[in-house]
Amino acid sequence: MTPEIVIVRFPDTCWGQRYSISSWPDRLYGAENLHSDAATEAWFKIWDLLTHGFTGSDGITYEKRRIAMQLKPTNPDSSPVPENVALHPFFTPLNNVVVYDHLVGESLLGTARLIFLTGISVSSDTLQAIAKRVRDGATCVALRSLAGTLVPEKSAGGTTTSLSGQGKWVITDDFGDPAVRAQVEPFLGNPREIRFRFGKHELRLRSVEGDPNRIRVEV
């Protein structure tokens, strides 16, 4: 595969356990002392961006907060359920995205135009590889806690941008910040299709007549 958008993240097993509708315990790796937090859940908002709002920012499986609020009245979160977002549609738009772990090397980042760096940890070699890709022209949207010493503006609050070579760093505490969306909007692709690229070949999947359960495949 030849990805243009890459998520780099430590695989901490967080998928939205805090809002499970089946009473699944909030235990990362199944450990009683490891729980979801802002860093492990940060990538939910990345998926919400990349899918044009289809996935929401409350998990990446059927076990979502908004579903839990409808099916489990005792859920402690009483915030309103978004009325304009499907609970769990079959068709979800996506533009040539791959997820790599925190040890990914330079060779796999070579085609990335947009990189998200998130989670609880990243290796120093991977951080250096990302920095090189940024200097070569990519945009990296990074969680402030992972930016390291590579970006001088890392200590500032909010969302900040910094040029590096031909590319750009976008440092943030919140991937849902409108300032982040403004930076990544050009990369998000068509909200009516799923697109993947394999070398010189492209695969596109589109819903037929707006029906998320009928898909047309184009190669």
Write the layout of secondary structure elements.
Layout (H helix, E strand, L loop, with lengths): L4 E5 L28 H4 L1 H8 L14 H7 L22 E2 L1 E4 L13 E5 L5 H12 L3 E5 L16 E5 L2 E6 L5 H7 L8 E6 L2 E8 L2 E8 L1
Parallel strand pairs: 1-3, 1-4, 2-8, 4-5, 5-7
Antiparallel strand pairs: 6-7, 8-9, 9-10
Q: Would you summarize the structure shown here?
A:
With 219 residues, the chain is of the alpha/beta class. It has helices at residues 38-41, 43-50, 65-71, 124-135, 178-184; strands spanning 5-9, 94-95, 97-100, 114-118, 139-143, 160-164, 167-172, 193-198, 201-208, 211-218.
Strand order of the largest sheet: 3-1-4-5-7-6
The biggest beta sheet is recorded as: 6 strands, mixed
**What would you call the structural class?**
alpha/beta
How many discrete structural domains? 2
Helical content (DSSP H or I, runs of 4+): 10-25%
* CA gyration radius, whole angstroms: 18 Å
Give the averaged pLDDT, no decimals.
87
Poorly predicted sequence stretches spanning 5 or more consecutive residues: none
Tally the beta strands: 10
- Element string (H = helix, E = strand): EHHHEEEHEEEHEEE
Relative strand content: 15-25%
What is the count of helical runs? 5
